[in-house]
Amino acid sequence: MASWHSCLAAQQRGNRRRSISVIVPTRHEAENVRELTARLFKSMSGNNSEWELMFVDDSDDDTPDRIEDLSREFSFVRLVHRIPGDRRGGLAGAVVEGLSAAKGSTIVVMDGDLQHPPEVVPVLANSVLTGACSIAVGSRYAGTGRSAGLSGPYRRTVSQLSRLVVRCVFPAIWRVRDPLSGFFALDRDVIVDTALAPEGFKILLEVLICGHWDEVREIPYDFAARWSGGSKAGWREGNQFLRQVVRLRLPAGDPKQPVRPVLDSTCRITVPAQTGRTTAGRTSAGVGAQG
Q1: What is the spatial distance between Cα 142 and Cα 69, in angstroms, rounded to a whole number?
Q2: Which residue from 41, 42, 120, 286 puts its CA 20 to 30 A from 54's CA?
Q3: Which of 166, 235, 154, 253 shows the shortest CA–CA distance to 202?
């Protein structure tokens, strides 16, 4: 049974003005931004909420020009272009900048390479908008989610090992099957008065450890192959990830008190059953047993 605190938080979330900001950090995704915008527009066409699509761009090619063209064509498209020398934190830093500029009460974060299917965005957003949870995670590893889009055995192995490391180092979020997902939605209140300082890619981990949430729900989906271009992951991002894990695990003040070592009694993590996957053109939340 849900606690009184959890029920009240869900009611408060559900009563807010329904608005969604979709934040997409980009770097050299010129060939992908139009396809992403078109598919997201189609997916959100039946949604009754106000929404915006915000690209936070770190590109040196013509990606920002393509996005500006889209903004003239679609009123819901916004561009924040970070110039060289002002690109702190990599893609995760771009997300943090997008969070500060976003207008929505519910925020969705996704990649710009179409490995995160836009068709899943309404499912993630509505899970938060309806008050079902404060964070909805698009999961490659929960329920019937799949990670087929990870290119080659090396990336799949690194992904699994990184996930295992995080779940062991932070036992409070052990039941989150995909804590390093780059595809998630959250209620804005989760990050109010929260200092986020991620580097590289792993913004969700930062939110889970530092944010103020009462329930996390995982939504299975198929991680797709890149639409165009190459992966930005490499040794530099791996080093940034390790530094982030160490920083988050070390105490923020009291050396005897690590950052959130156990879950508060009001925090819940909901894992999906082994049925229902969210894929392009077909949505099914597939949410089952609660923990």
Answers
A1: 38
A2: 286
A3: 166
Give the per-residue pLDDT at 196: 84
> Residue 214 carries which side chain, given as an amino acid letter?
D
pTM: 0.79
Q: What is the C-alpha separation between 197 and 217, in angstroms, rounded?
A: 24
Residue 230 has pLDDT above 60, yes or no: no
pLDDT per residue as tens digits for the range 132-158: 999 999 999 888 788 776 666 766 777
Residue ranges per structural domain of the chain: 17-290
Q: Give CA–CA dist 44/201, Å, rounded.
A: 26
pLDDT at 126 over 50: yes
Contact 131, 207 (CB under 8 A): no
Quick check: 171 and 261 in contact, CB under 8 A? yes
Beta carbons of 139 and 117 less than 8 angstroms apart:
no
**What CATH number was assigned to the domain covering residues 17-290?**
3.90.550.10
User: What pLDDT is attached to residue 234?
Assistant: 53
Backbone angles phi, psi at 194, to 5 degrees: -115, 130
Residue whose structure tokens are 């849900």: 2
pLDDT tens digit string along 75-109? 999 999 999 988 888 888 899 999 999 999 999 99
pLDDT at residue 258 is higher than 50:
no
Sequence length of the chain is 291
- d(CA 15, CA 283) in angstroms, rounded, equals 25
Determine phi and psi for 241, rounding to 5 degrees: -60, -45
